[in-house]
């Protein structure tokens, strides 16, 4: 017997890949509308949900992390299932999901760093933002990283919010960090930090930086570190002044005010300094016995290209700095997914408004959708993902309006559990993540911090297993 897809007897079945903000906003959008009955199965590579919120947002930004309370409410709906520890391409294939779901919605973010492409970028002591952020946020992939905090001078390449996050974490004292959810093993390494000078490098001028005023303001409130800039760096070129006069962009005006204020700071007033350096492009990272020992930068000048945007170009003036650690924060890249159309020119999953399309012909790939950074590229704040997800969900629902199919013979939960069991995947449902969550919160409470994260997948699975056995023994 045929039923309309989305009726009570035959809900619209959606698989969402990735459990970060874009995935949860897509689920929220699917549940909020009233036209279709929807069931969502969310697949996540790690046993833990929330993607970038858990592993990307800085540990001292707990207010931003509290958005997970909203995501948890979504996850606890009866029409929602979480399948943690399941990786697309490794444990399940796209074809297997498309066979079992009406649609697959990719919400996988942008997982890798853009390359800096200069000599020395791969030396020991030169790290990508992903590595450092993953490490200080307790991401299992980066648990065993070691950073040499005997370094006194550190370079942070790029001037977006990621660079500011990294500079702030490097600048904070162990006491400032101890009250965050930074993992214990990270704090133990940071305690040994000898860092004195953190140099942030932008290839263009003060008007073109990518970070935002609230993040800048936080740098003025650090216990033992002070942001500084040489006033001569703040002189705007003719083009920049012209643009500012016309646009009067509030964010830029606030940032220029911030930079003017800090140009009056006394660098000797605190033991650590965050230096804002403009119009400089890294040329080479110098090494000694394979380890970073210096950085060569070129002074840049700005010019207006044919489209009227301001670009940087290197001059023949160079500077060398005795840097011992480098963090590369020049933006992320979306990684192609197995068998999923990828638009190399845009650097995203190939899509129009969130409908995945074939590269070249632009014909829709039936049943495939995308949202978040994987759809639009790595830009915007957490909230930007909400309207983005709603756009994708809107197209998805439109595509399923008035479609009919046979009713499912078995509940979807059984179908998916069987598929994963066939592949011998030790999947983690949401109630098992909650075991881990509870334990992390309790451990955090003991240490006067928001949570103490478990940082290896093996340990996570062991804890869950032990608790389940304990409950079984107590007849729960
Ligand atoms: P981003 O905002 O795109 O900033 C990248 C920075 O790297 C820019 O200053 C860019 O300069 C520079 N850059 C790019 N290529 C370069 C090169 N080859 N050499 C030197 N510099 C180069 O990226 P992001 O900082 O990784 O942040 C990603 C997104 O996450 C952003 O939307 C950000 O706002 C968001 N985020 C938000 C928060 C928060 O709200 N607290 C925290 C972290 C991240 P040009 O402009 O000259 O290209």
Verbal overview:
- This protein is an alpha/beta fold.
- The chain folds into 2 domains: 2-110 and 334-428, Rossmann fold (3-Layer(aba) Sandwich), CATH 3.40.50.720; 112-332, 3-Layer(bba) Sandwich (FAD/NAD(P)-binding domain), CATH 3.50.50.60.
- It is built from 17 helices and 22 strands.
- It has helices at residues 21-32, 51-55, 62-65, 68-75, 94-100, 129-136, 161-171, 174-178, 184-190, 213-218, 238-247, 250-262, 373-376, 385-400, 412-422, 430-446, 457-473; strands at 2-4, 12-17, 38-44, 80-84, 103-106, 112-113, 126-128, 153-157, 197-201, 225-228, 272-277, 280-288, 291-304, 310-321, 325-328, 332-333, 342-343, 348-349, 351-352, 355-357, 364-370, 404-406.
- A 7-stranded mixed beta sheet has the order 4-3-2-5-21-20-19, with helices on both faces. It has a 6-stranded parallel beta sheet with strand order 7-15-8-9-11-10. It has a 3-stranded antiparallel beta sheet with strand order 12-13-14, with no helix packed on it.
- Helix 1 packs across helix 14 and helix 16 crosses helix 17.
- It is globular and about 75 Å long.
- NADP nicotinamide-adenine-dinucleotide phosphate binds at residues 157-163, 165, 202-204, 208-210, 215, 281, 329-332, 378-381.
């Amino acid at each position: 017997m045929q039923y309309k897809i989305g009726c009570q007897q035959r809900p619209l079945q959606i698989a969402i890949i990735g459990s970060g903000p874009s995935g949860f906003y897509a689920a929220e959008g699917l549940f909020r509308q009233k036209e279709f009955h929807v069931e969502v199965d969310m697949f996540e590579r790690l046993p833990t949900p929330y993607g970038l919120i858990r592993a990307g947002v800085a540990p001292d930004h707990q207010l931003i992390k509290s958005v997970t309370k909203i995501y948890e409410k979504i996850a606890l709906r009866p029409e929602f299932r979480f399948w943690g520890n399941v990786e697309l391409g490794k444990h399940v294939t796209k074809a297997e999901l498309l066979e079992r779901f009406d649609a697959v919605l990719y919400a996988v973010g942008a997982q890798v760093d853009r390359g800096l492409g200069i000599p020395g970028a791969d030396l020991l002591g030169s790290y990508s933002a992903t590595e450092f952020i993953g490490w200080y946020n307790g991401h299992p992939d980066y648990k065993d990283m070691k950073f040499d905090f005997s370094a006194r001078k550190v370079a942070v390449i790029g001037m977006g919010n990621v660079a500011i996050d990294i500079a702030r974490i490097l600048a904070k004292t162990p006491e400032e960090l101890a009250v965050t959810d930074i993992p214990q093993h990270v704090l133990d390494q940071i305690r040994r930090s000898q860092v004195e000078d953190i140099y942030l490098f932008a290839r263009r001028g003060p008007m073109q930086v990518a970070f935002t005023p609230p993040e800048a303001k936080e740098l003025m409130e650090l216990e033992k570190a002070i942001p500084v800039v040489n006033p001569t760096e703040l002189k705007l070129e003719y083009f920049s002044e012209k643009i500012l006069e016309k646009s009067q962009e509030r964010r830029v005006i606030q940032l220029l005010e911030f930079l003017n204020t800090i140009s009056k700071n006394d660098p000797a007033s605190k033991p650590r300094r965050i230096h804002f350096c403009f119009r400089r492009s890294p040329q080479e990272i110098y090494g000694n016995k394979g380890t970073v020992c210096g950085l060569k930068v070129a002074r840049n000048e700005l010019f207006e290209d044919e489209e009227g945007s301001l670009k940087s170009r290197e001059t023949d003036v160079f500077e060398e700095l005795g840097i011992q650690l480098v963090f590369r924060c020049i933006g992320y890249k979306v990684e192609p997914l197995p068998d999923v159309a990828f638009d190399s020119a845009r650097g995203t999953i190939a899509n129009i408004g969130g409908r995945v399309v074939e590269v070249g012909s632009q014909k829709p790939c039936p049943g495939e959708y995308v949202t978040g950074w994987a759809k639009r590229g790595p830009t915007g704040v957490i909230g930007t993902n909400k309207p983005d997800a709603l756009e994708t969900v809107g197209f998805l629902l439109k595509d399923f309006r008035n479609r009919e199919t046979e009713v499912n013979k078995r509940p979807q939960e059984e179908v998916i559990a069987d598929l994963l069991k066939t592949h011998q995947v030790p999947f983690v449902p949401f109630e098992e993540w909650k075991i881990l969550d509870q334990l992390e919160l309790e451990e955090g409470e003991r240490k006067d911090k928001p949570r103490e994260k478990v940082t290896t997948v093996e340990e996570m699975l062991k804890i869950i297993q032990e608790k389940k056995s304990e409950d079984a023994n107590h007849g729960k």
